[in-house]
Amino acid sequence: MKFFRPYKTTQTADELTVRRYGRIGLDVEAIRFMPLNQVEVADWCNGKLTVIPKNGDDSRPDLIIIIKGLNTNWVAHLGDFIMKIDDSVFYPCNYETFISMYKVIPDGPQ
Length: 110
What we know:
single chain, 110 residues, five-stranded antiparallel sheet, three-stranded antiparallel sheet, 2 helices
């Protein structure tokens, strides 16, 4: 059985920018790690953009961002969201988990 992280090959402008998302009790800034914004996302979260072999196969590269956490390093894969919790605290979150827990906070006055 193959597992993969679905992501579109074309992105809209909204998918390439940092946006505010919220759920009960926690609002975060987040952006989805996609092929067209890889450098900007790595810079935004102070992460290291890296290529590793996918499932140990050198002929299938996997693009990741290594994010330095408080106690450990986190790995974000293409398609994941990267959340900014505090000024310098970033965490990756799987796409399916993120969209089930967070909703976009509309811009403008509340």
